[in-house]
Specification:
By secondary structure, this protein is an alpha/beta fold. It is built from 15 helices and nine strands.
Length: 365
């Protein structure tokens, strides 16, 4: 693989950070705020991340969640591409079973044309929502088939991205445009470059598949922390060198929130935890304010969930968060840390990334 393509995946650590730092954006919507407010915050964070040397900025696909305005990652990424110049942009991820592979290839080919050489395509096999919503997305209630067919869907998508279906294949005369076919057309000058594919996961399935295919792997530590080390070990043990990578490369998503004082961090994290309590009990809504969380009477079962959830959220002052991230990196051996800041207010999220950048001495321009 060309050196510049490898760099797209591997990145370079900045400042005193032990590995490249990146951002995962859920485009969270707080109570009293609008989706427009949330998307404006995403632009502000992306600009800050680019200025301060974060390697990539990914947007996650979720559906039917009032507090998460990221149902259309490709649309949001196009918006962010128009407001940034250098930072890598990508999906963390697009849920492949929800979409026809050709549609994804067309969308990300379009993004690549908008932001050449800085688009990532991260793919997951979960629906990113509840079963009823997944059925509405896929126009079927046979949801297991989508997950079971994931390797075949992935292979088809890569064929569309590379425009290399074999002779005689039913899709051999179908081309994802924008894409490599334009370079082979009369007078064509289209770049054959296409977004690198990542596999995302929260268990061992995608870890093993990514390793077997020699693809980069992203693990959702922020909501499946107990599986992080086993999944990364499985990925590394399964890894086979490929045209994409000659050695494993794994990033982990980490919930991290830095504030100017520790008490405020606890308040913000408690509000985010209340949001998760409501989501997990079938009552999804906007992210509550810290004041609402302070007034809320948690049941004993909810309190236990909050304790367990918050145990995996690295929060506090910038120094405390830096120490927590350093320890996590040592414990997991992750090649990259992708930070997601969950809080009610966009200003709090923006300030968190700024504080973490300062704690690691990241560039200022």
């Amino acid at each position: 693989m060309a050196a510049d393509a490898v760099e797209e995946i591997r990145g370079t650590a900045q400042g005193t950070a032990p590995v490249p730092l990146s951002v995962l954006d859920l485009v969270t919507v707080g109570a009293g705020r609008t989706a427009t407010d949330a998307l404006r915050t995403s632009v502000d964070i992306a600009r800050l991340a680019e200025k301060r040397g974060f390697h990539r900025y990914w947007v996650a696909e979720h559906h039917s969640m009032p507090g998460v305005a990221s149902s259309s990652p490709a649309v949001i990424l196009a918006h962010l591409a128009a407001h940034t110049d250098r930072i890598r942009l990508g999906s963390g991820g697009v849920m492949l079973p929800n979409h026809a592979p050709l549609v994804i290839a067309e969308q990300f080919g379009t993004l690549e044309a908008m932001a050449p050489g800085r688009v990532d395509l991260g793919l997951g096999r979960a629906p990113g929502t509840d079963g009823a919503t997944a059925a509405a997305l896929r126009r079927t209630d046979r949801l297991g088939e989508g997950a079971d067919d994931f390797p075949q869907q992935l292979a088809e998508l890569i064929r569309f991205l590379d425009d290399d279906f074999p002779d005689g294949h039913p899709y051999g005369r179908i081309h994802a445009v924008p894409g490599p076919v334009q370079a082979t057309s009369p007078g064509g000058v289209q770049s054959a470059h296409r977004p690198p594919v990542w596999l995302l996961g929260s268990s061992g399935f995608s870890a093993r598949l990514a390793g077997t295919l020699g693809l980069p792997f992203a693990f959702a530590h922020h909501f499946s922390a107990q599986n992080t080390v086993p999944a990364l070990d499985l990925y590394r043990d399964s890894f086979r060198p490929s045209a994409v990578l000659d050695a494993p490369y794994a990033l982990i998503g980490v919930s991290a929130l830095a504030t100017d004082d520790e008490k405020e961090a606890r308040r913000q994290v408690q509000a985010a935890a209340l949001n998760m309590v409501r989501l997990r009990t079938g009552r999804p809504g906007l992210v509550p304010t810290p004041e609402e969380a302070e007034a809320y009477e948690f049941s004993p079962m909810e309190e236990e969930f909050v304790r367990s959830w918050n145990a995996n959220v690295i929060h506090g002052t910038a120094d405390e968060v830096r120490t927590g991230l350093d320890d996590l990196r040592k414990r997991t051996g992750a090649d990259e840390l992708m930070l997601t800041a969950n809080a009610h207010g966009g200003d709090v999220r923006l300030r968190s990334y700024e504080l973490i950048a300062d704690a690691y001495g990241l560039p200022t321009a």
